[in-house]
Amino acid sequence: MTHTYRIAAIPADGVGAEVVSAGRQVLDAVAAASAGRFSFDWTEFPWGSEYYAQHGQLMPSDGLEALTDFDAIYFGAVGWENVPDHVSLWGLRLNITQNFDQWANIRPVKFLPGVNSPLRAADDRELDWIVVRENSEGEYAGLGGRNLSGRGPGNEVAVQSSLFTDKGCERIIRFAFELARTRSVKKVSSVTKSNAQQYGMVLWDEVFARVAQEYPDVATESVLVDAMSAKFVLHPEELSVVVASNLNADILSDLGSALAGSLGLAASANLNPEGRFPSMFEPVHGSAPDIAGQGICNPIGAIASGALMLRHFGLEAEAHAVERAIESATGAGHLTRDLGGTASTEDVTHAIVEALEQ
Ligand code: GGG
Predict the structure, then answer these.
(1) Does the UniProt entry include the keyword Oxidoreductase (predicted)?
(2) Which of 39, 76, 93, 312 is the most buried (most CB within 10 A)?
């Protein structure tokens, strides 16, 4: 009997449409090769900045309700010049991640064959990490306000607060430890700036120390975010699972993917581990207005996010096959411009689909 996975596709803005189309081609090829075991039933939602221009909001008021019954959401990128970035981010991506309690955002970073990176050029070091981003609170709690002084232009005061809860810290830290146990290098690096952020991030450090006691088989370290940035560049081979707050992990994972060769390679999964709501899979990159619509963007971040979706469904062999096909395509020199190549989005997608079929 065929199992049908119902997927909500939200390409949204800029290169989102190109990379979601690429990912769908690969996932449909995986389903076609499953000999009828499973298939994907796609429903596309035309939400984003263009929708905002017509309706004054990024998605309809009942949009979350419309997404609730899907098995997963496959997302492109959000952000365009007609909408302030904070409005588009909160109106779509964060609206979904926060309301669906997708509190664990995993962002793997790895060297790929055939891809030059600033680190790889230096020596033979390996890079294979997963950045685990707390995805529900911290600096993205949305707490604060503007015009607090009441004194008018030029004297404005704005406050942006971070929220750290014991439960929120514990669940993401525990998630990182469980993930580390599945990896060959069993180590969790916790990142804060708790010397300066003396309330929330000290709580994070204390929860980390408490949870770590339950995982004596996993090595640990607590590193300040500035020192961790240096460590990413100088000692990438020392890292396995890196867990950090919402903002710190966002910044570190961009740095990590640039070190691996390009932001265009980075995949991510926004997970609601309890399964009460659908999880969302998306490339880490944004809408890239400078290259949108030209057919030259890198589809690998979106395609690798599709592999994370397969893994989420328990289709480990298929997820692995997509990851091997990506390696085979880059290894054979199918590289988009961000990686120094001349291949188009379609060229790379076809190379990955062909590698899957071999
Ligand atoms: N595909 C990810 C995406 O569209 N990101 C847009 C963005 O600006 N994200 C910032 C963030 O989520 O922190």
Answers:
(1) yes
(2) 76
Residue spans per domain, the chain: 1-108+266-358, 117-260
Q: Which residues line ligand 1 (CB under 6 A)?
A: 77-79, 89, 93, 250, 282-283, 285-286
User: Was domain 117-260 assigned CATH 3.40.718.10?
Assistant: yes
Q: 38 CA to middle of ligand 1, Å? A: 30
Task: Tell me which residues of the chain have a pLDDT lower than 70.
Answer: 121-124
Q: Residue 133 pairs with which residues in a beta bridge?
A: 105, 244
ipTM (interface pTM):
0.95
Per-residue model confidence (pLDDT) at position 121? 63
Question: Which residues have a Cβ under 8 Å from the Cβ of 206 and sit 6 or more positions away?
Answer: none
Separation CA 347–CA 336 (nearest Å): 9
Under CATH, which number does the domain 1-108+266-358 receive?
A: 3.40.718.10
Matching fold, domains 1-108+266-358 and 117-260: yes
Query: Across-strand partners of 190?
Result: 222, 243
Q: Which of 78, 87, 297 to mutate to test the pocket of ligand 1 (most atoms within 8 A of CB)?
A: 78
